[in-house]
What we know:
Strand order of the largest sheet: 1-9-10-11
Number of helices: 7
Number of domains: 2
Largest sheet: 4 strands, mixed
CATH topology of the largest domain: Aldehyde Oxidoreductase, domain 4
Number of strands: 11
Structural class: alpha+beta
Low-confidence stretches: none
Strand content: 15-25%
Radius of gyration: 26 Å
Amino acid sequence: MAQSGYHELRQEQLQRRTTSGQLLGIGVSIVIDSTAWFSRTEGASIRINDDGNITVLTGSASAGQQHGNLYRSIVQRLLPVASDQIHVVEGDTDQWSQSDGTMGSRTAQLAGTAVLRSVERLHDSLREAAAKQFEADIEDIVFYPGGSIGVRGVPSRSLTFAQLVTFSEEPIEANCIYEQTGASYPAAAHLSVLEVDVETGRVIPIRHVAVTDCGVVLDPESARSQVIGATAQGISQALYEEFVFDEDGNPLTNSFADYAVPSAAEIPAIETHFIETPSPRNPLGAKGVGEIGMIAAPVAVQNAVIDAVRHLGVQHLDMPCTPQKIWAAINHIEN
């Protein structure tokens, strides 16, 4: 409510009812989702290559979410390496097959934790290998910027990761199969503001505010993009997309010439905000974020449409809220 200027919108709505043919509708939805609820096991592997660079293997592949950025940031929590030194391989079952795949808004919390646990083990393995090379106590082994490791207080006595791999008798690698004990529960509140033309029933979305609690936001850019994409899909469900059949059951929406899908011109700028309530289910504190926008958005939009025309006697409309349906409802025309 605070982010949207709710009370000012209500004042504008009252003014429009008496001065304009463009009615203003305001709709709110509050939802809770369940993520990682049916498949809660995911694995990852990490190794130091001969050139000192790092390879991360996961089975949960990106479908636009840019998981690689998340994994790199997790590696950099413990190892002093640049992003371009971390190579992420996703979905290659020849190299890593311990995965149930990308689904259920589960990757950040499950695969992310598997990467974290693997990096923790790799971190310890690197210190053990360095302690052996320097004949030092492992507690005196520290990491130095740029991807090297050596004795505390003596940076001149250090080895690069590539050198350490050369001296090591075994590959320096680690993996983890992580199982989460239960589902996580992200939440969201959406507010939709739209205009309804009284004469034609046309709906024009003009604002959409999305506040999401997906636990700790691990990759802000990706989280924001996923909320925007899911919200756009939800707006489309509420206003445009519909399978239509004739009385004999023949489909009438056979192509995108007939099946309505909005372009960027029909979707308003999505105002995204986050609050963080860390999940107790995993050490990252993460919850799912990929799908909750498409749950909250259509409800908020449908509520906004009804809110705009309720004073005209309209109490309900089935989605999608097309101009035809709205015009007929305003004019009390059935069927």
